[in-house]
Amino acid sequence: MDLITNLRLVEFDLSSACTRKCPFCSPGIPKHRRENPVYLHPGIIFATCMELVINDFKGCIALCGHGEPTMHPDLIKISVEIKRILPRNSLVLFTNGDLLTVNLLNELMVDKIIFDCYDFPTGKKVKETVLKSNKVDKVFCIDHARGVRKFNSRAGAVYASVCNNKPCDFMARKVFLTAEGDWITCCNDYKQTNKWRGTLKTMFNNQKHIFMRNHLMIPNREVLDPCKYCDVGTVGQNHCIMDEPSILDCDWDKK
Ligand code: SF4
Ligand code: SF4
User: Fold this and answer.
1) What is the best residue among 29, 68, 114, 154 to mutate for testing ligand 1's pocket, by most ligand atoms within 8 Å of CB?
2) Please, what's the largest Cα pairwise distance for the chain?
3) Where are the alpha helices (DSSP H) in 41-166?
4) Residue of the nearest CA to atom 4 in ligand 1?
5) Ligand nearest to the CA of 234
6) d(CA 140, CA 79)
7) Domains in the chain: how many in total?
8) Which atom of ligand 2 is found nearest the CA of 221?
């Protein structure tokens, strides 16, 4: 399988720390990651971006992860450098909004910001902040606050026994680099069951990674850990396009 032809999304887990403890996330996070926060080294990010340039990568980059990306002390520098190395690739920041300020918004070099809104007061605060910034047309919102959020098993992080034995191309189409600098199964492997060190290509050509990708497509999740506990994953999803509404269309005064 050609790595770059199939890869659509590279996710950088900037921070193992978070400002929140959401019930669909926190149970799967190893305790030591929250208690002793680590932040992804910018050098690893830039080296990976150079590898993507060499391989003519055409997908997206996401600053996201199992913690809150805006906690990374070098977030602005990282965004500027990624856009310098990969100017034609879309760079997206995911955030819970807790630490967003006008200055941060104005200095960030990202194409899109996706705000995960978990409560109405934060939604109102973030919208006010965005309106004072020059990123008004770049901020979109996933409104978890208004709906009942379904707790997926998150590869066993929430429900240990749920298995959806359908094909999954997540390992073929997107990759996830943890704040410690390990490649893991996918974004849903909160427990970090499988880890690979090294370059993107080294990881992707590892025999275990190839074995897992192939068995996910058969599908044969039952022989794969953590996929045998997972009710997430699909085939053909466009990992770069999400159609959330603009934050300007969200009104947290109307419940
Ligand atoms: S990373 Fe996101 S989902 Fe997890 S605890 Fe933080 S805000 Fe909640
Ligand atoms: S089955 Fe679940 S854990 Fe496995 S690669 Fe797919 S989404 Fe990730």
Assistant:
1) 68
2) 53
3) 42-54, 75-85, 102-107, 120-131
4) 25
5) 2
6) 18
7) 1
8) 1
Is the full-model pTM beyond 0.85?
A: yes
Can you list the pairs that 193-199 forms with residues at least 24 positions away whose Cβ atoms lie under 8 Å? 193/155, 193/225, 193/226, 194/225, 194/226, 199/47, 199/48, 199/51
pLDDT digits (tens, 9 = 90+) for 27-39: 889 889 999 999 9
Domain annotation covers residue 255: no
**Is residue 152 within 6 Å of ligand 1 at its C-beta?**
no
Pairing of β 195-196 and β 183-184 = antiparallel
Nearest residue to 98 via CA among 119, 79, 77:
119
Compute, in angstroms, the gap from residue 1 CA to the centroid of ligand 1: 33
Q: Which helix (H) or strand (E) holds 210?
A: helix 207-217
**Token pair for residue 14?**
């900037």
- Ligand 2 contact via 65 beta carbon (within 6 Å): no
Instruction: Give a yes or no: residue 254 inside a domain.
Output: no
Q: Which domain holds residue 100?
A: 3-249
Does the pLDDT of residue 254 top 60, yes or no? yes
Q: What does the pLDDT look like over 109-167, one tens digit per residue? A: 999 999 999 999 999 999 999 999 999 999 999 988 887 667 788 888 888 777 788 99
User: Which residue is closest in CA terms to ligand 2's atom 6?
Assistant: 233
Q: Look up the CATH number of the domain holding residue 46.
A: 3.20.20.70
The answer, yes or no, to whether any atom of ligand 2 lies below 6 A from the CB of 171, is: yes
**Structure tokens that stand for 231 in this block:** 């009710």
